Amino acid sequence: MADLTIRNLTITPLELKLVERFEGQPASGRGSPVCSFTSRISSLFSSCAVSTHVRIKSDEIDRCDVSFVVGPFETCVTDVRAADPGREVIRLTFEDSDGYQYQVDVPSPSPRSTVMKRLDGAPNEYTTIYVQAGSCLAIFSSANLSSWMREVHDDYPLSALSIPGTHNTPTYHLALPSVRCQAASVREQLENGVRFFDIRVNVSSDSSELALVHSAFPVSLTGTKYFKDLLDVVYAFIEANPSEALIMSIKREGTGRGTDQQLSKILKNRFYEDGRRWYTNPRIPKIGEVRGKIVLLRRHHNDPSLDGEWGGLGWGLDGSVWPDNCEDGLLGSGIARVQDFYEVDQSHNIQKKIEFVRCHLERAAEPVCQLPGSKGHQDQDRAAPHPFFVSFLSGSNFFNANCWPEKIAAKANPAIIEYLCLRHAAEGKGPAGRNVGDGSTGVVVTDWVGLDGDWDLIRCVVGWNARLQLKQID
C-alpha cells in the first residue's frame, strides 16, 4: 500500500498527531461499494476512484504518535501506510495552531464527505474527502454554504471566485430522462452554495409569459413552469442572504416564435425593475457591488432600444455570441472563456469531456488578482478584470440513453471531485503544467448535484475560495 498523503486546503496550519488503525469491513449499503457521488444506477461507478466506505469491525490493532505539520494549501506525503481498501480504517487526530484537536476515520463509514469530529470544544469545522486512488486525504474548510460569499473580500472581481453552477437549473421536475438535468429544487441549490443559474425560456410573439424549457421541451411533464415563479424563489433567498450574489444566464429556446429582441424587452420591462435586485451593467463587477443581486449574463441579442443603456455600453454581460461545443472558446464580448463541449455521442467520449474540464480548471487557476494595498494592485485596478472561466460538466445525446445527463454526471462528477482534491492548483500536476495563481476553479456548471443529499462537488468548488481568504489574511 502507498503512504498517506494529506492535502490541507484550508487557511489554518494542521498537524497530524495520532494514527490509530482498526480492522474494517465494507459498510452496508446498496450492494457493491459506491463513490462520493451516488446514483440510482450504481453500476456506473465501477471506475470511480473516490474511496469506498468502510466501518470499523474490531478494537484498535495499532496506535502511533506522529508529527506531520501541513501548512495552509500545502501537501504532505507522510510515512503512514494508507488503509488497506475494504479491510482497514485509520483514525487520524489533527491539532490546529491553537491546540484544538479534530478527528476523522479514513475511509469513513459514509459514501460522502466527512466532517471531522471536534474534540474538547474545538471551534472550527473541517470537511474531508478521501481519494483512494491517490491515498490522499483532502481537508476543506466547512463553509456555511447558504452564505459562503460573506467570507470573500468586497474588492475581488466576481470572475476571481470559484463559483458552483447548475446546467439547465430548473430541470428538476418529472420530465423526459434526456431533459431532466437536476435532482434538487432551485431553493435547495441556492441553500447548498450554487451561485450560477443556467435558464432557458420559451418566447411567444404575443405574450410576456416566459415558460421554462430545455431545448424544445418543457422542464416538467406535470404542467408548465414559469420564469416569474423561479424569480420569486431567488428573490426570497437573496433577501434572506444579502451577502450572496447570483449569476443568471438567460437564453431563448423552445418552439415559440418570439425573437431575442422581444425577449430582451420583456425581461427589461417586466422583470428587471429599477436595479435593486439586478445588476445589468455590461462589465464584470466586484463582489461588493453585487451582494444581494442577480448578475445578468444574457445569451440573447438585445433590442436596439437597449444599446444606449449604461452610457452607450449596452445592457447586461454580453454572452450573445456564445462559442458552440467548444474546448476553450472566447465569448464575442471577451468577458468569458468557455468550455462547453456537449456533443457526447458515445459513452467513451465522456472521458474526453472530463479531460476538457480538467484543462479548463487548470486555466482558471492561473490568473492572480490583487487586493487594495498589495503590490501590483494599482496597475491591475486600471485594467479590466480577467474574464470568467466557465466550464460545463454537462453533455448529452438525445438518441443514446447511455449519454443522457444523469449517466454522464455519474462519471464526470466523481472524476472532477477527484481532480479538485488531488491535482487542482498543485504545481506541475495540471494537464498542461501551467503556473498556479490564485487557484480559482472559475464557474463550474454541473448536472445532478444534490442527488440523495450529496453536495460534495459543490463543497469542493466553494472550498477553493479559501485560497482568496488566505490572501486577505496576508
Describe it for me?
With 474 residues, this protein is an alpha/beta fold. It has 2 domains: 3-141, no CATH class; 145-473, Phosphatidylinositol (PI) phosphodiesterase (TIM Barrel, Alpha-Beta Barrel). Helix content is 20%, strand content 27%. It contains 10 helices and 22 strands. Strands 11, 12, 13, 14, 15, 16, 17, 18, 19, 20, 21 and 22 form a 12-stranded mixed sheet that branches. The protein has a 5-stranded mixed sheet with strand order 4-1-10-9-7. A hairpin with a 4-residue loop joins strand 5 (88-96) and strand 6 (101-106). It is globular, with a radius of gyration of 23 Å.
Keywords:
about 475 residues, five-stranded mixed β-sheet, twelve-stranded mixed β-sheet, TIM Barrel, about 20% helix, globular, alpha/beta
Report, as a whole number of angstroms, the end-to-end distance: 38 Å
The multimeric state of the shown protein is: single chain
Total beta strands: 22
Largest sheet: 12 strands, mixed
Please work out how many helical segments DSSP would assign.
10
Estimated helix fraction: 10-25%
Structural class: alpha/beta
CATH superfamily of the largest domain: Phosphatidylinositol (PI) phosphodiesterase
Proper CATH architecture of the largest domain: Alpha-Beta Barrel
